[in-house]
Design brief:
heterodimer, A: alpha/beta, Rossmann fold, 8 helices, about 30% strand, B: alpha+beta, 3 domains, six-stranded mixed beta barrel, six-stranded mixed β-sheet, 24 strands
Chain lengths: ~250, ~625
Amino acid sequence: MNSSPPFMYCLQHVSKRLEKAGAVFTLRIPDLTIRRGELVAFVGESGCGKSTLLDMLGLISAATSAAQFDVCFREGDPDSIGSASESRLAELRRRHLGYVLQSGGLLPFLSVGENILLSRRVNGNTDGPEVRNLARSLGIEGQWRKKPAFLSGGQRQRVAIARALAHSPSVVLADEPTGAVDKMTARDIRDLLREVARTRNTTVIIVTHDEALVSGITDRVFSFNVERLGPDSVESTLLETAWTARGQTGGEV
Amino acid sequence: MRESSPRPIERGLVARLAAADLRHEWILSLCVILALAAVLAPLLLMFGLKFGTIETLRRRLIQDPSNCEIRPLATVARDLAWFDQMRARPDVGFLTPTTRQIAAGVIIKSLSGTEHIDCDLIPTDEGDRLVVENGSRVPGPGEVVITAMAARMLNVKEGDSVSVTATRSSGVDSERATVEMRVAGTLGMRASGLKAVYATLSFLESVESYKDGMAVPDLGWPGSLPLARPVFDGAIVLLPMALSEERKLRLITSTGLNHIDQLDGDGLQGRAGWSAKNALVVYLLSNEASTVGEESLIAIRDQLRGESAEVLAWIRPLNATLRDATGYERPILVQALSIAPDKAAAFGIEPAPPWGAGTELRLDLLMPDDASTGEATLTTVQAEHPLKIPVTIKSHNTASAGALVPTALGGLLRLSQERRLRFDEHSRHFLLERRNYAGFRMYARTLDDVEPLRSALAAEGINVHTEAQRISEVTELDRHLTRIFWIIAVVGISGGVAALVASLYASVERKRREFGVLRLVGISRQSLMRFPVYQSLILAGMSFLFAATLFHTIAMTINHLFREQLRAGESFCRLPIIYQSASLATVLAFATIAAALAAARVNRAAPADALREE
C-alpha cells in the first residue's frame, strides 16, 4: 500500500527559540517539505539558523513549537517527531540518517575502516562487500587501516561520506561539508554528494555558506530572511529560493 | 506500521569504542593506570602486612596449647565430683586434678646411665593437649613422658626405662622408695622449659601418699595405711528396766545422738532386722543429720555402766546387691549386728550372729537359709562410689530376718555412703580414698573459651593465671592496626577516586566532539553514558592488576627476608584470595562511582554544540 505521502520531511509552522546570554534568536519555518531523492541546499551566512535547522532535521534538537513535524524515512512508516521518544529518535537517527560534518566528524581513535563501519555496527550490521565497494568508489580503500589523523582534509571528507552512506540511510545531512577543504576538493565533494542523491535515491541535505558551491546543481535551494526585531532579538525565516531568481552571485555550474 | 524488527546496536559496541579510545590515547591511559596503581599497591601491601602479621601471631597463639592453659594461683580444695562437673563443660578442653605441689617432686635416674635429676611430677591424662600436641602420647600406668630438658640431662629417649624415686623424712632419717618406669615419649621445647615428668594421676597420688607417710601397696612401698573407721546411725540399748526421763536426756546430751525412742518387739525387728525377745526395755538412740563413730558407743556404755545394759551399734538398712558363687545376683537390705554369744542367748536375740562381738573386720554375711552359702560378692548401690567386696555367706534359720553383717563391716559400708573408700585386696582393709585435690591442670577448648572459664572459676573463688594478656594484646593490636589501616585506606582511596574522576572528567570534556558524533550516529544518551564507565572499569581493573602484581612481588620479597622468623606455612605479608577479590570489587565499585560523575557531564552535553565548537 502506497497511499502514504511521498515526503521525507513535512514541517508546518515550526519555530525554534534559542536564548544565549540574554539574546533571543528565533528560527521560523513556515512550510518545508522534502521528498525522497531530492538534493536540497540551505544557504546562509553564519547566525542565520541553518545549523539549527539541520539539527532539527537530524533529530538531535527539538522544535520549540510546531504545527506539524513529520518524518517518513521509510514508505508507509511516518513518525510525528513531537511525540517520539528519545530512544525512538536515536533509532531513527542510526537507521535512516547519515551525517557529514565540516571536518569529517571522524572518531580519532578508530581507523578509517572502523569509522566507516560504525554506522553499520550501531544497526547491528558488520562488514560486507558493499562497504568495500563504496570505499573503492570513493577512492579511500587504500586508507582502510589508517587513523583519520594521517589523512588529508579531502580524504577525511570522503571517509565521512562513506560512513554517512555505509548503512544505506534515507537521508544524508551534510553540515558545511566543504568548510575545511580547498576549492578543488570542495567541488569534488559536492559532486560526490550530488552523485549519491542521483544514484542511490537518497535525500541529500547540504547546509553551506558558500552559495557558489551549490548554485545550479541542487533540486531546491532555501535561504533565510534575517530580521532584527530589537537590540536583543533576531528572527530568521526560512524561504525557498529559485536559484535563477536570485542569481546575484556568479556560481559555477 | 513500525519498522519490522529493527536490529539492535551491536553488542558491546560502546565497550569496544571505549577500549579503542583508551588504546588510542595509550600514553594518557598509562598515566592514569600508574597513578591509580601508585595508590593501590601501598594499600594492598599495608593490608597484606596487617593481615599477615596478625594472622601469624594469632595462629601461633591458637596453635600453642600453652596459651589455652588455665593455672590456679593458689591451692584449691576440690573433690572429684567438682572435677567431673567441670570436665563436662563444653569450654573445657582438658582437666586433671593435681596433688599438692610440695609432694610432687621425684628423682629420676636413667637405668643405663648414672645421671639423676630432681624433677617435677605433673599429672596427665587422655586429651592432654600439651602432651599430644608436643610430640608424645599420653603415658599409661608404669609410664612417664619426659620434658626435653630432662631428657637431655638424663640422655634418655622414648622406650628407655628410668627409675623414679620418691623420698620422705621420718624423724631424722630419710626414706626413699623407687619404681621403674618406661619413657612413653619426650616433649618438645615449646611445651616446657622445665625438668619435669608427666605421669598418670594415680601415680602422683601414690607419690603423695608415700610422702605423707602412707604405704603404697600397689608399688610395694611401705608405710601406714589410711584405715577407714566405721560410722553408725545410732545405737540400740537393751536394758532390764526402763530409764528415767532425766537419764534418757543425759544419755543423748553427750553422745552426739539427739533422739531416743523406746521400741517394742516389732519396732526392733523393723528398725534393726533382728529381735530380742528377752529384752525388757529397748531404746533406739539416733541422729537424723549425721553419723557417729565408735567413741559415741563407748560414751553410752560409760553412762550405763552397772545397769546390765547391752549397747549395740545401729545402722539404717543399706541397699546392696549380692552375687553368689553361682553367679546369681539379688538385691538385699544389709543391717549390722555383733554380740557375744552369751549375751545373745541372755537377751534371746534372733538370729544370733555366729561371729560374736569381735571388733576386728570380718567379711561375713548372715543370710536366711534359703540362700546359698560360701564365697560371694557384695556391691553397695546407694553409695556415690560403689564398693565391691568379697564376703562369706553364713546361713541362719530365722525366717523374718534379713541380711546381717558384723558391726565393723556394716559401719564401713555406712561410711562408704559418705566418703570414698577403697577395699585393699592385699591388706583386706578398707582404706580412705583422698577427699580433695590441691590443684588442677586445665586447658580451655579454644582461645575464646579462656576468658569465660576464667570468670567462671573466679566466681567460685578460684583465681587463675591465663594467657589472657597475650591474647588481648594481639586482639588489641589487630584493632589498632585495623583502625590505622582504614584511615590510610580512606585517604588513599579518596585520592585514587579523585584522580580517576579528574582524569575521566577531563577525558569527557576533551571528547565532547566525539560524543556528539556518537550521538549523531545514533547511539543514545544512555548508551553513551556507559562509555566513561567502561573506560573507568578498564583503567581501574588494569591498575589493580598492576598493583596486585607489585604486591605479590614485594610480599614474596618481604616473606623471603623474614623467613628466619617464620615457621612453615606462615607469612608476614599475605592477602587471602577472598580479600584480594573484595579489594578488586571495591576498586571497581569506586571506579563506577567516579565514572558516573563524569557520565553526568556526557548527559548534559548537547551534541549539536559540541560538533561546531571550532
